[in-house]
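Inputs:
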Amino acid sequence: MEHYTMNLNLKVWRQQNAAAKGGFKLYRVENISSEMSFLEMFDVLNEQLIHDGEDPITFDHDCREGICGSCSMYIDGKPHGPWQANTTCQLHMRAFKDGDTIVVEPWRADSFPVIKDLMVDRTAFDRIIQAGGYISVNTGNAVDGNSLPIPKDDADASFAAAMCIGCGACVAACKNSSAMLFVSAKVAHLALLPQGEPERRSRVLNMVAQMDKEGFGACTNTGACEATCPKEISLSNIARLNQEYTLASLTAK
Amino acid sequence: MLDAKIPAGTLDDKWTEYKGHCKLVNPANKRKLEIIIVGTGLAGASAAASLGELGYKVKAFCFQDSPRRAHSIAAQGGINAAKNYQNDGDSVFRLFYDTIKGGDYRSRESNVHRLSEVSASIIDQCVAQGVPFAREYGGLLSNRSFGGTQVQRTFYAAGQTGQQLLIGAYQALERQVALGNVKMYSRHEMLEIVKIDGKAQGIIARDLVSGKLERHFGHAVLLCSGGYGNVFYLSTNAMGSNVTAAWKAHKQGATFANPCFTQIHPTCIPVSGDHQSKLTLMSESLRNDGRIWVPKKQGDTRKASDIPEEERDYYLERRYPAFGNLVPRDVASRAAKERCDEGYGVGSSKQAVYLDFAAAIIRYGKIEVGKEGNDHATQEEIIQLGKDVVKEKYGNLFDMYEKITGENPYEIPMRIYPAVHYTMGGLWVDYELQTNVPGLYSLGEANFSDHGANRLGASALMQGLADGYFVIPYTIGNYLADEIYNKAVETDHPAFGSAEKEVSDRINRLMGIKGKQSVESFHKRLGKIMWEKCGMARNAQGLQEAIAEIQALKKEFWSDVRIPGNIAEMNPELDKANRVADFIELGELMCKDALNRNESCGGHFREEYQTPDGEALRDDKDYMYVAAWEYAGDSNWNLHKEPLNYEVIKPTQRNYK
Amino acid sequence: MTWKQVFTSSIGKKLVMGFTGIFLILFLIVHVGLNACIWVPDGGETFNKAAHFMGSMIVPRILEIGLFAGFFLHIIQGYLLTVQNRSKRSVGYAVDYGNRGSKWYSRSMGILGTLILLFLIMHIYHFWTPSRLGGMWNIHELGTVMYNGKEYHDLFNEMRIVFAGNLVIVIVYVLGCISLGYHLAHGFKSAFRTLGVHNNRYFDMIKATGYAFAIIVPLAFAMMPVSYYLGWV
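Outputs:
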């Protein structure tokens, strides 16, 4: 791969804390290698800011291999930047060219309040899981792993939904700030398995109720979430969620 | 000083005997007992969920924004269990034996045997929780094989087994949060252990959002805070993975065992420049089909495709004809380093070797053409069909490689190089997973117990979940049964006050330095020293130099580090400074331990101790012990030895030729 | 779980949109089929008789009440959803995701719906009020025509009066139909998603049908005023 270096202008959202009013600030970074990841470019910028006596930019990141779901930058109008099926940490600088101006914003949704700069509070997702995103089985209660055969297609579909990394890009991309792709992925993951059957109805009702309580919007099936999801979670999960919810709510006692 | 508390009886009966006789706490008393858990990876989350289910009052802490982000999530390959679903002769004993041998005979037999015993229950528990393991068409669980074993005992969920297991444990944990049994403190970092009457009775934690210090009481404290591979700066660990919790415990008297035992994984994407912040693993499974080679000519700058077959050196196949490209991790890593050090490395940095799938593509292509009965296939057709097969097997890894390097591994061989991956060492614990500080426990990668000097693939997930789901719920009762007489200590107790002052003094001191160099630059320098002198190969002279350099670095850090921002706010630079300060101290101890261990075993390779053909040379007579280091003040440690007695297995020299 | 909880939840609201949407789609089929009778070359007899049938029989009259209820629910719920969804992001983005992630008309259902609503008001004024309420108050009454000794409203001629020579009204009707087309292009498939069709084999069929429906039905409607204007009928 040919490498090249570039100089870039960055327009980054800065916000001291949740209560403060934020705004964009312009930065320039030079000699950025096309081999760097986007976050490494931010590391360079932060080193530069520390050197200049300024406050470095705060952002969430951890595994930097696209699986923990921490990173959360809205880059040039798209969560996780221009590449498809990708997280910010796996975005590499060869996606950009010399002289580009890159606009970086935090996830925007009232349910994801900004903590500082590009870091947002996504604990709403944890509370949705608490509402029912599990199978109630105490340690030691399990029967043998092979006692319930699961059709491979169901197991694979369940896994495809369970790949969700909980990054919140779906909410950030959605014009309604809806968390339906996240919720549907969990509902589908568990509804497709026989182990999830006993709590199937109560799970979907409780999780949707919590989702509404957290202040996420309602889905209008635009598909922006699916298009931006780093793990390519399918929109059909939302249809499954709707079906699960409809049946559960209409048959509830 | 160190009593491993190994139960009496034959190896097969120890755990059963222990469970039959350990003390129990009745349900009414469990409600009154508080347990603090630091870290919410596989070990922490599973422990928090299980103890919450039992009725204890649990407080769980993690520095990430959610327990689901712990680095267990990044494990790719799988989890071992002695289920013998494949009818290929697996058993508890074989898993136990493979783990002991893989660990180069430096682990405790009783702990490893217990791990093998409970391994099957882990799979059952995870399936019941809804972990979508890979399945066969008949609907039953699928297995694959992994390095260092001759049976298929690895359960997996594509290349994301760690993620699926952690999500399972996370969901169980969140269920307990919903039931009110567990209180979750995310974006909190533990910065001190509070000891009262010699027992661990609480922690001081910092709320990373507000910067406030908090006091938390617990009848017991569990450290499930993972490994310390980030001491090398560049590793496959997450950016936030750190040793701080374990190190605070160490400074409060808990001994640190075998710190020099580090696993260096052979197949990682190489460093591309000074900007590099972390390294990415390419699953061990790739070595099933990829051939590793370098050019036969030193400093060869030709493209891989321009180097003819006869000018390529398949050095693993040459050196280890019996195991070839499938030698264990430590052996493969050292061999790659040896070639690069001799000047045969490839790529712009010359610190890489090729992992080539061309032969596999043609082999698979020919099989496919054979299936179709096509006797006149062109070379292009064969290659295309072969690529399809390879894509099916490793597609997601190839995509990840291409995202990071921009090179297409179907066309050009992958460049790989070893990278720090896992640390076998950690807090010393006894059979009950208790450190030598009463009431202080350590689970998962944070402790030293099960992997000896080298860990086998797919065993880390097994150990984390075994400790959390199936060991600690029993062993902690044995301690807490006596704690029911002790009421919860109010957090205005002087011990909490002095611990908090300790922490805030240190933070104030760090913030007050106002030097010129960033935390990151110190961390990089520490990593460089560690990698060069305490990395894949070590020698006495290098280790002595490293100790001196680290001591100098420590001095410089404490006089010239620059931390911007304030204390009472979200300040990632301050968090990092707290961690790097501990890494520097740990680095010194690792070198000291490596210097003390005058032998080569597993991941610890001392250049002075090798066979004539360059293999690790163990010294069972003098070093068959766990080196447990007791902190004795600045740059000063006392060594305690826990002898390892092999009652069942007879240690032999590992041979892969 | 109370009914109120069901229908005030985010999915419950969507269900209302989906059910009423499908009901309105069914209405469109009836409406377009009936109106297509204007192209029967018998001077409007078939069309007027069909319209008479719809106006005089009890079942269509009852359905008409349901239709108004459907429209009402669809419109009110649509506006509520749009407003509520907009309120979930008080600080917006500087750079919009735009068409990279979704179609513009999928994101513009509120605006498209509003255009259709405005068109609908005009449309009701043109045809529904004279045929149902004609003669009351000062409302203009439809002309009549005799077939086989029976008197019928001459809707066929009424359409000629509205469209022939009125270029502006024809253009407005065509624009209304285009809005309807885009509204349906998203609404048709979205309604079935909302009702829970997650099987992709079926959903692909629904999607294709939806696009065909979104083109054919509004096109047929649009051709009606055009036909009158150009003197084809």
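Remarks. The two ends of chain B are 41 Å apart (CA to CA). The mean pLDDT of chain B is 95.
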